[in-house]
Amino acid sequence: MTIEGFCDPRFAGVRDAFARCFAEGLEHGGGVSVAADGRTVVDLWGGHADAARTRSWRRDTLINVWSCTKGVVALAIAMLVERGKLDYAAPVARYWPEFAAGGKERITLDQVMSHQAGLNGLAVPMDEAGMLAWTPYVDALAAMVPLWEPGSRCVYHALSYGHLAGEVLRRVDGRSVGRFIAEEIAGPLGADFHVGLPEPEDARAAEMIEGPKASEWVEFVRASPFPHACGNPAPRALAPNDRAWRAAEVPGGNGQSTAQALARIYGMMAAGGTFEGKSLIGRAAIEEA
Q1: Which of 16, 18, 34, 231 is the most buried (most CB within 10 A)?
Q2: What's the average model confidence in pLDDT over 69-79?
Q3: Residue 198 exposed, middle or buried by CB count within 10 Å (0-12, 13-18, 19+)
């Protein structure tokens, strides 16, 4: 199988490791991109974008990047903090008054962004359609009582993270988190990254394949003292293959991206807010985040 793209000679080991994944049957299709010091140094792809192996993986193939989406959401929040529209130390209820219900009036934005809000999932039944529709899910989060004392511990907010941060963003900015990312991050950086994928782009989306151990993480969380991250609704490994999932904004985990786009966004943050001469955020704001 041919590995396409380019690789700076300094990073030849990345190309070797990527090729070895295919040679040993560990990968079906994929891309890898690396940014260093504000520029792309690795941009490789290979394999197939569907289970039937009828579509080749290309440079512009999109894939659901799951929780890599969270970092882009955190960047969006950091940009609004830098602009003076948000304050990490402020209670979420300052921006989202309904959120104060259930004894949550003192939960800060910092606690939400740090997975310490005590809201790692819903305590009431919610189907996937409710989560994809946004409002039913955020209204349920606003109404609930924290599942543990906020700030007392850090517990991964697998899906709720994006809706919590995204609703705060929507309340102060007026745009949805997907639109903000498109207009303020992906667009200026030339990054092919989407939260809420337009239907014409579906043809570029890779098919997700469920591995033999995909359910183990869900069962692990369900057996933990904090099982709500995998309930109401339960996450599905193959959800990204559905048009409804791709179209919705689930900023905790449904970003659709090329490898190059993800590297550009995270590479910009790693370089202090600038990538290829384009500045999105100051170094101090990144450090504060």
Answers
A1: 18
A2: 98
A3: exposed
Same domain, 35 and 72: no
Q: Return d(Cα 163, Cα 73) in angstroms, integer.
A: 10
Mind listing the pLDDT tens digit for each residue in 251-264? Answer: 999 999 999 999 99
- The boundaries of the domain holding residue 222 are 62-288
Least Cα distance to 7 among 47, 38, 34 occurs for: 34
Start-to-end CA distance of the chain, whole Å, equals: 42
18, two tokens: 């990527």
- Considering the domain architecture, whether residues 42 and 119 belong to the same structural domain is answered as no
Nearest CA to 228 out of 122, 104, 116, 112 is that of 122
As annotated, the active-site residues are 67
Same structural domain, 241 and 98: yes
Longest dimension (CA), the chain: 57
CATH number assigned to the domain comprising residue 149: 3.40.710.10
How many other C-beta atoms can be found within 10 angstroms of the C-beta atom of residue 211?
Answer: 10
Residue 154 is encoded by which pair of tokens?
A: 């850090």
- Which residues face 62 on adjacent strands? 205
81/14 same-domain check: no
Closest CA to 237 of 261, 198, 210, 264: 210
Q: pLDDT of 49-61, one tens digit each?
A: 999 999 999 999 9
Considering the entire predicted model, what is its pTM?
A: 0.96
Instruction: Please tell me the number of Cα atoms within 13 Å of 232 on its side-chain side.
Output: 18
